[in-house]
């Protein structure tokens, strides 16, 4: 009766944990969203655009003002030379990923992905008729090796999907690691889907480098971004793809039947936001760094072993090293039900052979939220240790 490929999947872990958090009145350090309202000027710009602006269908490629703002933003922030015609506005990065995969993967094409991976990648590749191939990365450094990558590539490989900074491990890949990937893409003539939604939630060590900027890569990259992350407005779901004109044309063919176009007041407001100067970005990064450090210090004081977080809204905890003799999913359930704190088990980011020893926590929260989260996690740890 239903499509087995999608119908047989469990509900995404982010929804499951947020619903459990509501049911149990828990502090939610699971799903990645800030508990601040987001920049007021951008929210006001959206309200004004809704009241005074045009609310009929915009162009399916996106509002011209936003496409221009995206191109100018990447020129300023990352030194990219992109024509606005190479920008396609989508309903969040989630739709950007879906449109890129559906628009570019032919049935039978092999697509190489790295585990842990964002939970939409493999199902969308399979729905497009592609064959999912995995390279498994391991804690604590989650490094990509040329040997493991080469072993996953065959003459049917068409695409690689790469997330940097990496959710959930909070690693930012440096230039040497990017070169390993670029070498493979050039050697085997692959398209690289670069899920770079966390590009602005980084702390400079190592600096964030878009794969696009490596020699020979600009024409084979589909770079995906999300205003939800850049402006702490995750519910807005404004994203985009940047790609060469032929790749953009193919992705737009999928986008026109997924959503066709995106709410114009939100697009207009994101265009306003992208004109912000460097102080907005440095201020946001300083604020997230402070929250990251607060959660890290509080958890360490409570006996948790916390891995360094180089970017994203997240940090991870090593459960066995923290004295917790439970699998990540079992501990996450205990923590939300018995201690009132939601988290994300990192095993949910694996298609197969999951690592079950790592827990992800979101630090993009007010101090009071973080402090009560720490207290409750300490309680969960005591309960787990028996
Ligand atoms: N990719 C990754 C790696 C993410 O972490 C997220 C959301 N946290 C997305 C894609 C989806 O972004 P959006 O909310 O813009 O759809
Ligand atoms: N990407 C966000 C996270 O990792 C959540 C996105 C979602 O809920 N689909 O928590």
Report what the structure shows.
The chain has 386 residues and is of the alpha/beta class. It folds into 2 domains: 4-31 and 279-385, Alpha-Beta Complex (Aspartate Aminotransferase, domain 1), CATH 3.90.1150.10; 40-276, 3-Layer(aba) Sandwich (Aspartate Aminotransferase, domain 2). It is 43% helix and 15% strand. It contains 14 helices and 13 strands. The chain has a 7-stranded mixed beta sheet with strand order 2-8-7-6-5-3-4, sandwiched between helices. It has a 4-stranded antiparallel beta sheet with strand order 9-10-13-12. Strands 1-11 form a two-stranded parallel ribbon. Helix 8 links the parallel strand 5 and strand 6 (191-195). 4'-deoxy-4'-aminopyridoxal-5'-phosphate (PMP) binds next to helix 5. Residues 32, 92-94, 118, 163, 167, 195, 197, 226, 228, 234, 237, 239 line the site of 4'-deoxy-4'-aminopyridoxal-5'-phosphate (PMP).
Distance between the termini: 45 Å
CATH level-4 homologous superfamily of the largest domain = Type I PLP-dependent aspartate aminotransferase-like (Major domain)
What's the CATH C level of the largest domain?
Alpha Beta
Number of helices: 14
Counted up, domains total: 2
CATH architecture type of the largest domain: 3-Layer(aba) Sandwich
Write a compact overview of the structure shown.
The chain is α/β, with parallel strands linked by helices and 386 residues long. It is 43% helix and 15% strand.
